[in-house]
Amino acid sequence: MITRRRPSPPERRGRWRALLLAFAAGWSVLFAPSEGEAGPALVFDARSGEVLHAYGAYTPWHPASLTKLLTAYVVFDAVRSGRVSLDSPVRISEYALSQPPSKMGFAVGTEISLEYALRILMVKSANDIAVAVGEAISGSEQAFVAEMNATARRLGMIDSHFVNPHGLHDPAQRTTARDMGILARALIRDFPQYQRFFDIESIRVGQAVMTNHNKLIGRFQGADGMKTGYICASGFNIVATATRGGRRLVAVVLGGMTAAQRNEVTAGLLEAGFAAGTGSFGLLSGNRTTLDSLHRPVNVGAPIDVSPYVCQKKKAPPEILSFGTEATTVAAGRPSEADGARIIDNAGAGVLALASAPVMGLPAARVATDPLVAFDVPLPRPNPFRQASPTGPAVPAPPATPVSTMAKPRPMVNPFEPRPNPLR
């Protein structure tokens, strides 16, 4: 059995320095997965599609809440075609409310606008909202998932299949780092006007302030999206984007053992990509590689289930831990998304991955006063004819008491007032 000693901080800094130097020198870092298993990692230029780093790009993986990026794409496409607008109501059904956490738990009959549903979806990653959005667009979850799969095929996500709009575990729900890269690039290319949904640090719903699980936003220089995902079977996933000097890079990292490890690897790969510059990467032949031209194995196999390593604390093999680099460390103990708030400081290696910030997220004072940090999402009220008995016959309820948010709506947000619908 292969054992692996956890590197000391000086060793870790040295490895990041070596990785940066290798990138800057134009060395090829397009690694193949070992024994068919890898912690997939991919970095590419959003505009050209040029691949800067690829490791296990076609390794099947469970997407977890990265699924919601495709959910968002289908929604944006429906808005573009005129089927719905961002002001269209999203109504919570009994089936939506029955979804496991993460969830908002709004009562059956509650209505919010599609705009605010998308904000909640991208920040809170609420599974009940994902189902409600699908029902609002397509009439049922099943019909919406059919649209998701049709969209994935049209975009060229050849190794992906979806069975739900939120990413809760199903053995048949699968993707690859390459396919997630295709999706991220399509979102950037096709819907630049909706960038605002992917770089929100916090939202405020009633008295609750919810921070984005993507801890690179607001901490890593230039970070501007997109989405994290986690279930035991997938480990900690992320699709992250960052822009510097007009150049935007996309990183896909799948199967982190902790959120902190995932964030550290992602920040390091993005930093190295920016340090190298355009055209510094490629195969040993000198030919540039794009997402479309990445070599695909003949048999990609079934998705790897990393739950024994992530949630049962078994030691993961080195090929899953490496992401194609030697810069990975694994935190001890059972992980959670809160681990992602750990600040990664590689000072001394020429990399300051994440700037200093409180361990549990943004300072409360900043959330309360900075209009660029927290978006107000009005606390919705249930439909009064469904409020009293969500599972039985409709029963009139007493008039709803007005609910106020923590702060008055700002002009930049232009909030849509919540509307009870007494006719349903």
UniProtKB/TrEMBL annotation:
InterPro entries per the UniProt record, alphabetical: Beta-lactam/transpept-like, Peptidase_S11, Peptidase_S11_N
SUPFAM superfamilies for this protein: beta-lactamase/transpeptidase-like
Residues in Peptidase S11 D-alanyl-D-alanine carboxypeptidase A N-terminal domain copies: 35-256
Coiled coil segments of this chain: none
GO biological-process terms attached to the record: cell wall organization; peptidoglycan biosynthetic process; proteolysis; regulation of cell shape
Region entry Disordered, spans: 384-424
Domain of life where this protein originates: Bacteria
Chain sites annotated for binding substrate: K227
Residues annotated as catalytic: S65, K68, S125
GO terms assigned for molecular function: serine-type D-Ala-D-Ala carboxypeptidase activity
Keywords: Carboxypeptidase, Cell shape, Cell wall biogenesis/degradation, Hydrolase, Peptidoglycan synthesis, Protease, Signal
Family (UniProt): Belongs to the peptidase S11 family.
Name this protein carries in UniProt: D-alanyl-D-alanine carboxypeptidase
Organism annotation: Tepidamorphus gemmatus
Lineage per the UniProt record: Bacteria, Pseudomonadati, Pseudomonadota, Alphaproteobacteria, Hyphomicrobiales
